[in-house]
Design brief:
Blueprint (H helix, E strand, L loop, with lengths): L1 H4 L9 E5 L4 E3 L2 E3 L2 E4 L2 E3 L2 E3 L5 E4 L4 E3 L2 E8 L2 E3 L2 E9 L4 E3 L2 E3 L1 E4 L4 E3 L2 E3 L11 E3 L7 E3 L2
Parallel strand pairs: 1-4, 2-5, 3-6, 4-7, 5-8, 6-9, 7-9, 8-10, 9-11, 10-12, 11-13, 11-14, 12-15, 13-16
Antiparallel strand pairs: 17-18
Length: 144
């Protein structure tokens, strides 16, 4: 049923899971492949695999920390974003939290209330905790 109707986002990952508009998920979400959010997630979002993509539509929202390889955001995210590879912020994106990214595409109109922290190379392990330093440059070190 889903195989014939799956959408493809820019990164090439097909959408395998849909949280429809009007649906509220309370709790953490773990996924592989592509997760498209038109509804609301109240909890952390974690991707398994290096090609997974989170897409948050203009109607969608996530209230929790996000750890994914790739993301396309056009809705609301309240919480830190940890993007191992590529992040696209569309014109209606609203992010309240720090953004850790490697490659960023940001369209006019996207809004961020937090720090932008650049990673010089893709993060190898999404689940590895990161300890921030107190300097103003956004430098960070991996926690032991």
């Amino acid at each position: 049923m889903w195989a014939n109707n799956s959408k493809t986002v820019r990164s090439g990952a097909s959408i395998t899971t849909l949280i429809a508009q009007g649906t509220v998920i309370q709790g953490n979400v773990s996924f592989t492949g592509g997760l498209h959010v038109d509804g609301r997630i109240e909890g952390a979002v974690q991707a398994e695999g290096t090609d997974a993509t989170l897409t948050v539509s203009e109607n969608g929202s996530v209230h929790g920390e996000v750890h994914v390889p790739n993301a396309v955001i056009n809705g609301n995210v309240v919480g830190d974003l940890h993007i191992a590879n590529r992040l696209e912020l569309a014109n209606a994106a609203r992010v309240e939290g720090n953004i850790h990214y490697c490659v960023l595409e940001m369209n006019a109109g996207a809004q961020i209330n937090g720090k932008m922290i650049f990673r010089s190379e893709p993060q190898r392990r999404l689940s590895a905790p990161v300890a921030k330093t107190d300097d103003d440059h956004g430098a960070e070190t991996a926690a032991a």
